[in-house]
Amino acid sequence: MNGVLIINKPAGLTSHDVVNRVRRILRERSVGHLGTLDPSATGVLPLVIGNWTRLAQFYTKSEKSYEGIICFGFATDTYDSDGEPTGPRIDLQASIEEIRELARGFRGQIEQTPPPFSAKKIQGVPAYKLARKGKEVLLGPVMVEVKEFEILSLETQCAAFRAGVTSGTYMRSIAHDMGQRLGCGAHLKSLCRTALAEFALGDALSFEQLEEAAVNHRVEDLFVHPRKLLPEFPAVTATEADAARIRTGRTVNLPELSRARQVRVFQGQRDLIAIADRVAGSLFHPKIVLVSDAAQLTH
What is the mean pLDDT of residues 174-183? Predict the structure, then answer.
């Protein structure tokens, strides 16, 4: 079984919990996810199944979209509502216009320090494991890019927002930093990922939908159509002879649709068989082969 599923992750589960549950439903060991979500967060969690776990390498820098709520008045040690308050409650004095003006300062390329309770590693150990033991966590700032950050409303000290960010950006840190600048503290109350790369919330599935499909042996009907994957790579349809060569990891001449460095190689309309790198001109070598009867190949 090879394909990509989009799960609408519920709150309270880690991304690994979701992977384990889908493994049980599908009775498939080879399942991975594209982009971790915090346990309290919900929304888009794409899963790669079978040989298609090899596609994960192309999604490490994917852009993400979120909707959520920032609550002002106190900060927490985790920067979200799961943590313990780190100070007394202080009433928010800013208006929605002032908060919107503050939000504008977080757009573009910014320097951000990840939360101490995060998966960032310190000498090989995830920061959250050190933080849970009460050890000091010192994480250095990193450059991230916030492409969109809009404050939608403000009610009872809580601001609803919409954001679009590059990989590695923590909305928890943005909430925390906003609270510091306002002098009242803040934390992320809720977060929903509405999109990751080409995967959108409107196409996400519940566990119940997946379980029903598994019972009826129709799981593959729920897979994302292969032609929708990695749209930034041009699609090339190989002849039967070229497809046979690609399946064994050999270099082939493909229709030269563009000067793209990488292309998606299809056999027929639906069968994605490889991602190939340009060698020269129309000559391509498979970077990964996705068909189940081929060994994992890289060049």
Answer: 96
Residues 207 and 233 in one domain: no
The answer to whether residue 297 sits within a structural domain is: no
- Lookup result for tokens 């994992």: 296
Q: In whole angstroms, give the CA distance from residue 89 to residue 131.
A: 23
Task: Report residue 52 as tokens.
Answer: 């298609």
pLDDT of residue 294: 42
Whole-structure pTM value:
0.88
Using CA atoms, how far apart are residues 215 and 20, in angstroms rounded to an integer?
18
Range 180-202 average pLDDT: 97
Instruction: Say if residue 118's pLDDT is above 70.
Output: no
- Confirm whether 38 is a catalytic residue: yes
| Domain residue limits at 178 | 68-190
Tell me which of 38, 177, 242, 277 is the catalytic residue.
38
Q: Which of 226, 197, 206 is nearest to 3 (CA)?
A: 226
The answer to whether residue 294 sits within a structural domain is no
- pLDDT greater than 50 at residue 73: yes
